[in-house]
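> forwarded from #structure-qc
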């Protein structure tokens, strides 16, 4: 699976690694920040709570898989206030995540940086217009991305005037595999 994902990324990832899902740190306070609607997507998106499920539901679904393929994209910014650059970088990362989802999303759950973003605005609470393209946010599952980066041996902070986004794909190892 790792080879398939690396090939699908086509050099667009900055860093990537495979970790066991048992290494993921689920943090109730992080999930609660979703409920507090800190990003504005709570109860407004199929890829975020409450539509994506409780933290415990998501933890069960995620930990039903043995491994997570974690990848990042990194972008240089003009300065730390380059919000236009951050938005452009997020769009490119989302495009990369969607392309991975197109390759493996029917059989392997994909989690991205924020919600899926296919539809702007999301159709929620009306039925999802593209359920086959839907993927959830890493943070909406209560996963601490800083801890995820440490577990994967991937840099969370890549220096001043940069932004780094994370996504992951869940998979099981073949019998006898790592």
């Amino acid at each position: 699976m790792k080879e398939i994902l690396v090939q699908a990324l086509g050099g667009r990832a900055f860093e990537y690694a495979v970790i066991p899902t048992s290494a993921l740190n689920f943090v109730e306070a992080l999930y609660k920040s979703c409920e507090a609607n800190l990003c504005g997507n709570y109860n407004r998106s199929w890829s975020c709570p409450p539509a994506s499920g409780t933290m415990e539901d998501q933890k069960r679904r995620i930990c039903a898989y043995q491994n997570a393929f974690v990848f990042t994209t990194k972008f240089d910014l003009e300065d730390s206030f380059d919000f236009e650059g951050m938005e452009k970088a997020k769009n490119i990362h989302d495009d990369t995540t969607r392309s991975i989802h197109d390759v493996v999303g029917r059989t392997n759950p994909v989690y991205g940086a924020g919600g899926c973003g296919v539809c702007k605005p999301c159709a929620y609470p009306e039925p999802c217009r593209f359920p086959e393209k839907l993927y959830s946010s890493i943070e909406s599952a209560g996963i601490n991305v800083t801890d995820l980066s440490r577990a994967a041996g991937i840099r969370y902070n890549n220096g001043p005037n940069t932004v780094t986004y994370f996504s992951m794909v869940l998979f099981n190892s073949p019998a006898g595999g790592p």
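QC bot note: The chain has a mean pLDDT of 91. The two ends are 11 Å apart (CA to CA).
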